[in-house]
């Protein structure tokens, strides 16, 4: 047990996640290669995670004030190990139902707002499953995933922290000098201002009235309280890198293009069924407005080493929710050339890079929080998310196998729930895998496994189209 006495006021953003209409949680599903020993996990948590001040503090409310009050932590109250029938016929379905059930149960406010469920059940991908559930007010998703990684070690070197690839700046080397460089700098500045103004206008319009086209993926009122179903599919990261490198793109460009292709296939299939299977080249209506909300962490993510030091030595580091919104438009339609999906995705992301939308929305939300309180700010956030279709995110993970207190990990599948959207798609890289996690309201999207299948198939179609193009170009040269 660890004892603290300090009290810290909740940041305005942390208060936002405690509003009744915006009570958000982060889920991290971890597949292990071996059965999990609960005693070993509990001892490991005592030495690491509960030494972090947010994981050893409970929420205290005094009138309108909220604060973190550090307390004595009994790890036994945070690690849940249910009795499981080892002879069950469908373990995958059991895991899905179990996780869906816990999304309907609020955390106990009399203790720190996190828990770990250990499911010693063998599935097709793992020998056991660990499920972290953490209230979003504790921190943003990227920081929390980094903190969990700081509790792991490389399987090949049990004393070494995991290393996460750093995205390189894909510039062309030293900046060019002269009149053209000056012209490009001025033009980029003009576009930055223009795009930021346009994006802020669109964000304001979305807050007030601009809603996505009604479609089978879009939820309705009450989605924030609906039970969520979490499914995932493991893709080949090397396939994504093949397209990325050959087309001079980023991982984000490719996965956005793959997702656009998958959503187009999925919606076209549903529309085909609704029109009694009428044969058309496309059953999609024209000019569908379908957008994803993307939360952008504006605070530089604390490194894994710094987080490990924070838990081990009590050192200080940046922490908390400092996030802005970006509204990302998806181009829905069937393309004759599958590579057009990733080309379009790259154009969309390049356009968003030349915008201060995330910073502007963060500043606006901060102003609303200070002027009107977290309930009004939460209502504004709910309005924006309700008028868009889905949430979308991507987090980079370790490129080497890691172990969680001696238990080798085979996959990591994080997501979020409690926000007013029926669909959330998250990509998480690990080793040579890209895990895509789909969280849905099953009353709106009853077949999330089909959506995962469409994402997998879309990646294969895009990769095949690229290979065929390369073979054709090679033949023409010969």
Tell me about this structure.
With 478 residues, the chain is α+β, with helices and mostly antiparallel strands. The protein is built from 12 helices and 16 strands. The strands form 3 sheets. The chain has a 7-stranded mixed sheet with strand order 5-6-7-2-14-13-8, covered by helices on one side. Mean pLDDT is 88; it is low at 1-5 and 170-174.
Share of β-strand residues = 15-25%
pLDDT < 50 runs, ≥5 residues: 1-5, 170-174
- Total number of beta strands: 16
Tell me the number of helical segments per DSSP (H or I, 4 or more residues long).
Answer: 12
Q: What's the mean pLDDT score?
A: 88
**What would the principal axes of the Cα set say about the shape?**
globular
Short description:
It contains twelve helices and 16 strands. It has 478 residues and is of the alpha+beta class.
Describe the secondary structure blueprint for this structure.
Elements: E1 7-9, H1 12-16, E2 25-32, H2 38-47, E3 57-62, E4 65-70, E5 79-80, H3 91-102, E6 114-119, E7 128-135, H4 141-149, E8 152-154, H5 179-208, E9 229-236, H6 237-246, H7 251-274, E10 290-297, H8 304-313, E11 323-330, H9 339-353, H10 357-372, H11 374-386, E12 390-395, E13 402-404, E14 407-417, E15 423-430, E16 433-440, H12 448-477
Parallel strand pairs: 5-6, 10-12, 12-15
Antiparallel strand pairs: 1-4, 2-7, 2-14, 3-4, 6-7, 8-13, 9-16, 10-11, 13-14, 15-16
Descriptive keywords:
single chain, alpha+beta, seven-stranded mixed β-sheet, 16 strands, 21% strand
